[in-house]
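--- STAGE predict ---
source: upstream dedup step, 1 unique chain passed
mode: sequence only
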Amino acid sequence: QPFNGYYVRILGDELQQQVGNAIRVGENRSLFSENGLVLSANGTILAVSHARHPRDDYNELWITPLFEVDIYRLDPSTATWRSMGNITLQGSTQDDDFGMALAMNDEGTLLAVGAPSDETSSIKAGRVATFQWDDEAGQWLPFADLLGEADSAFGSSVALLPSGNQLLVGAPQNDMNGEDSGQAFLYTVVGV
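--- STAGE serialize ---
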């Protein structure tokens, strides 16, 4: 049976040796034009975004993609990438570009996910969802949602300081200083 997905391989040191196994991202998933990929500072936690294309077999059509983020942790004893938590993080609506931008703190315990086409607050306003790893629960828990203004594409880029205490979000189509002049927003993260 053909595999309709893709593989992610992590290469290390100057010899470009593969670190861990190749990660097979599930069936009916594909890279999209601006997919996100982020690796923790120590190289043991990886987040990768992809588009899942549900199929309407009755009409033989691919349905508008749903964007998702999977997180993996490298098991040092077996050199194998394993799912970190048992859920896949998903966008709030189809076609919201959830995961187009990803950022992670150095420890790999705080994740920011940009969804610049999200329409939760307004048309193409954008959203950044943050998640924090709960070691006791073994899950990624929602931490905070930040919403952009109409037509700003808020969340097109995201960056976290190494400690995770500050988050920078880009909104390239924000009109505050003229049409599509763009704006960057800096947030202080409390409670990390």
